[in-house]
């Protein structure tokens, strides 16, 4: 399991933070998710780092850029 830090563009409010958090949670094997509005970063642990593309796609589908 590895810790991942992604820069997420387009977040402007707590609703955005919630949307990005839910997008990350939708991918199996993610846990300990923290999304920071001020820095524009999402940090989380993922069981299989091969699934990172699924996380990026989920964030993109939620309307944000990674």
Automatic annotation (TrEMBL):
Q: Could you name the domain of life of the organism this protein comes from? A: Bacteria
Annotated SUPFAM superfamilies: HMA, heavy metal-associated domain
For this UniProt record, the keywords arranged alphabetically read as follows: Metal-binding
Q: One Pfam family this chain carries?
A: HMA
In its UniProt record, a GO molecular function of this protein is: copper ion binding
Instruction: Please report the stretch or stretches of sequence annotated as the HMA domain.
Output: 2-66
Q: Gene3D superfamilies, per this entry?
A: 3.30.70.100
Q: Which GO terms describe its biological process?
A: copper ion transport
Q: Does the keyword Metal-binding apply?
A: yes
Q: Which CDD domains does the record cross-reference, listed alphabetically?
A: HMA (cd00371)
Query: What name does the UniProt record give this protein?
Result: Copper chaperone
| Organism per entry | Caldithrix abyssi
